[in-house]
Amino acid sequence: AAFDITMTQHCIADHHCREGNPLMPSSLPGQMSVNFATVGYSSFVSYWLRKHRAKQWWIAPTIGAVAHGAGVASGFKNR
């Protein structure tokens, strides 16, 4: 999440791109607060599901990793 934010902020500052998620703020503090709250909640849900032996515990972290990986890849592409 932190690397995704860094790449996005660098790309926005260079005027090569804009934030692709319409619900995500463009400012650094806004992105940090939304991303870290989402990662924290996703981690909590994943932990709770794993603790209760649910087979789906891995879905939330996987979605987060793929989404942030796409954001980082987009940042590299638009450098």
How does the SSE layout of this entry go?
Layout: H1 2-13, H2 28-51, H3 59-77
What features would you describe in this structure?
The structure is a single chain. This protein has 79 residues and is an all-alpha fold. The protein has 3 helices and no strands. Helix 1 runs parallel beside helix 3 and helix 2 runs antiparallel to helix 3. It is elongated, with a radius of gyration of 14 Å. The model has no long low-confidence stretch (mean pLDDT 91).
Q: Indicate the mean pLDDT.
A: 91
The radius of gyration computed from the alpha-carbon positions, rounded to a whole number of angstroms, is 14 Å
Low-confidence stretches: none
The percent of residues in helical segments reads 55-70%
Note the beta-strand portion.
Answer: under 5%
Number of strands: 0
State the gist of this model.
This protein has 79 residues and is an all-alpha fold. The chain has three helices and no strands. Helix 1 runs parallel beside helix 3.
Characteristics of this structure?
79 residues; mainly alpha; 0% strand
